Amino acid sequence: MKVTVVGAGAVGASCAEYIAMKDFASEVVLIDIKEGFAEGKAMDLMQTASLMNFDTQITGVTNDYSKTANSDVAVITSGIPRKPGMTREELIGINAGIVKSVATSLIEQSPNVIIIVVSNPMDTMAYLAHKSIGIAKNRIIGMGGALDSARFKFRLAEALGCPQSDVDGMVIAGHSDTGMLPLTRLAVRNSVPVTAFLSEERLSEVAEATKVGGATLTKLLGTSAWYAPGAAVSSMVQAIACDTKKMFPCSALLDGEYGLTDISIGVPCIIGKNGIEKIVELELTDAEKAKFKESAAGVRAVNELL
Ligand SMILES: NC(=O)c1ccc[n+]([C@@H]2O[C@H](COP(=O)([O-])OP(=O)(O)OC[C@H]3O[C@@H](n4cnc5c(N)ncnc54)[C@H](O)[C@@H]3O)[C@@H](O)[C@H]2O)c1
Ligand SMILES: O=C(O)C[C@H](O)C(=O)O
Question: What residues sit in the active site (predicted)?
Answer without folding.
Answer: 175
